[in-house]
Each structure stands twice: as structure tokens, then as C-alpha cells.
Design brief:
single chain; 294 residues; alpha+beta; D-amino Acid Aminotransferase, Chain A, domain 1; D-amino Acid Aminotransferase, Chain A, domain 2; 8 helices; globular; binds N-(5'-phosphopyridoxyl)-D-alanine
Length: 294
């Protein structure tokens, strides 16, 4: 079956999908995006993803191209046309097409592109062995809370990880604090058993998976502390893991040359991973959430 993309009001074969060369997303990375997981044909945490997308648009003063109801309808249609049961949808919006000039164009229409992709199950070794991560200096700008398509530092970081045979790159500030991963949020469990993740600020993306895992951790009665933590703390931690829409809860068992604890995924991370995967599977169809359409 051929893949179908959505491009500004049209459903087109993926291979024929095109945007204009003066799309500001292409020239200035002047746009935002979301990645939403699909599980058993239903979106996972759709409401929070749509809210974050709308916030990103507001923060960059990009006009919303359609109502929330219309957006959800198109997203559903993209999933349907691609017959995605388990996978992801990618939604991108840019400031528009206009002759190249850094300042906002006066009359540009927000451009909307969506693609959907089936996902493969994670390899079993993620749970038996965990993954390796490397650290890189956090050279990003001061608005990492905006889910902008301007991802060069993240691209370079992930490439560093790839070349080191690692799953993820973890950003570290000049002060030695971990902010987040190149496409994930970072967590540790300290020797004392505290579950620690950095609080929401402009230094990190407010992950939707982070938010749901926080809720699950609360339900589990875990000792939760939202605070910044250092690279030294992570190296000495009992457990480390990263979270995202596509990684779920991913145990990190090696950070650069440091093996975390005994080198095996920890019990808290594994528990949260199982609970998060069960939560995804319990996601109701979007039709069950009329509040997302208002
Ligand atoms: N990345 N931090 C960054 C920098 C991210 O790019 C992401 C998501 C996250 C986790 O957010 P969430 O739990 O909402 O997926 C944290 C997506 C998946 C991506 O760029 O593909």
C-alpha cells in the first residue's frame, strides 16, 4: 500500500508530496511540529499534543491554520488513509511561503504537512540490557520549550550518538547539569530512591510522555522530585532512563564510559515502562474524546 501525505488541504502520494522552495520552514526553520503516537488505531495523549502544538504556534506568532476540530479530523484521516494501527503521525506547520526576508511576511498562509508511519516493536534487548547514551554540550538556544523544527544541535547530537553506537545523546550545560536528550527527556533514580527529572522551563521541551510518566509515578507512590540534576549524579545513579513518544520509557545503562549501577535496567524504570506501554494500549479512540475537538 502506498503512503499518503497531507499537504495544505490535499492528500497526495508520499513520493509526490512537495512544498515550495520559499517555504519559510525550508529557508529559516521557521516552523513547529508534533509527533503523536498511534496505538491500536487511536492517538496517545492527543489532547496534550494538540495543546502543545497550539502553544508552539502562539509562542512563535504563527497563525493557527485551522480549528482544533479540523486538525484532529485531518490527523484521523491521515492515519486512516495510511492504515496505521501502531505507529506515529508527524504534523508540521510553518509560517508560510514568501520571498526570502528574515522578518515575518505580511501575507503568508501557515503551511501544514502531515505524514504517518507504521512503527516496529522495540527490540527485546531494550528491556533486557537497556541502551547506551553519550553526553554532548547543550549548545541550543534559550527556547527549547518550543517544539520548533529548528533542530540542528539535536541533529548533530544524535549523529554523535549514532557514531558512538549509542541510542541517545544527552545535553549537558556548562555548569554540568543534564537538561534532556536530543529527542527525549532525562530521568534518574538516585541511590536514595528518589525519582528525579528536571522541572519544566525554557531549557527543555515539556514532554508529553514525561507528563504521563509523572502521573503514573505518582500513582505508584514513588518519591518524585522535579529538580535539575548533574552529570555526576547521573553517573552515580541507581537508574537512568529517557522518555519520549517513540522511546516510551527507555532504560539507559551506560552513559559515556560509565556503567549505570550494575549495567542492567533498574526496577523502577522497567515498572514505569510496563505501565506506560499498558497506558498506551488502553488509549481510547479519538472519538471517545469529544473535548479534544472544541
Ligand atoms: N521528540 N525533548 C526533545 C528535545 C524532544 O524532541 C522530544 C520529542 C522530547 C520528548 O517529548 P514527547 O514525550 O512529547 O515525545 C523531549 C520527538 C519524538 C521527535 O522529535 O521525534
Amino acid at each position: 500500500m502506498s503512503r499518503i501525505a497531507y499537504v495544505n488541504g490535499r492528500y497526495v502520494p508520499h513520493r509526490d508530496a512537495r512544498v515550495h522552495i520559499e517555504d519559510r520552514g525550508y529557508q529559516f526553520a521557521d516552523g513547529i511540529y508534533e509527533v503523536v503516537a498511534v496505538k491500536s488505531g487511536a492517538f496517545v495523549d492527543l489532547g496534550p499534543h494538540v495543546e502543545r502544538l497550539e502553544r508552539s504556534l502562539r509562542e512563535l506568532r504563527i497563525a493557527a491554520p485551522m480549528t482544533r476540530a479540523a486538525l484532529v479530523t485531518v490527523m484521523e484521516e491521515v492515519i486512516r488513509r495510511n492504515a496505521v494501527q501502531d505507529g506515529i503521525i508527524y504534523v508540521q506547520m510553518t509560517r508560510g511561503v514568501a520571498p526570502r526576508d528574515h522578518a515575518f511576511p505580511t501575507a503568508a498562509r501557515t503551511q501544514v504537512v502531515m505524514t504517518a508511519k507504521r512503527g516496529r516493536p522495540h527490540p527485546v534487548r531494550y528491556e533486557t540490557d537497556g541502551v547506551k547514551a553519550v553526553t554532548v554540550p547543550d549548545i541550543r538556544w534559550d527556547r527549547c520549550d518550543i517544539k520548533s523544527v529548528s533542530l540542528l544541535p539535536n541533529v548533530l547530537a544524535k549523529q554523535t550518538a549514532r557514531e558512538a553506537g549509542a541510542y541517545e545523546a544527552i545535553f549537558v550545560t556548562p555548569e554540568g547539569e543534564i537538561t534532556e536528550g536530543s529527542s527525549t527527556n532525562a530521568w534518574i533514580v538516585t541511590r536514595d530512591g528518589d525519582l528525579v527529572t528536571r522541572p519544566i522551563s525554557n531549557a527543555i521541551l515539556a514532554g508529553i510522555t514525561r507528563r504521563t510518566v509523572l502521573e503514573i509515578a505518582r500513582e505508584e507512590g514513588l518519591r518524585l522530585v522535579e529538580r535539575a540534576f548533574s552529570l555526576a549524579e547521573a553517573r552515580a545513579a541507581r537508574e537512568m532512563f529517557v522518555t519520549s513518544t517513540t522511546s516510551f520509557v527507555m532504560p539507559v545503562t551506560q552513559l559515556d564510559d560509565s556503567v549505570i549501577a550494575n549495567g542492567k535496567p533498574g526496577t523502577i524504570g522497567l515498572k514505569l515502562r510496563q505501565r506506560y506501554i499498558a497506558y498506551m494500549a488502553s488509549a481510547e479512540g479519538v472519538d471517545a474524546h469529544p473535548e479534544n475537538r472544541s
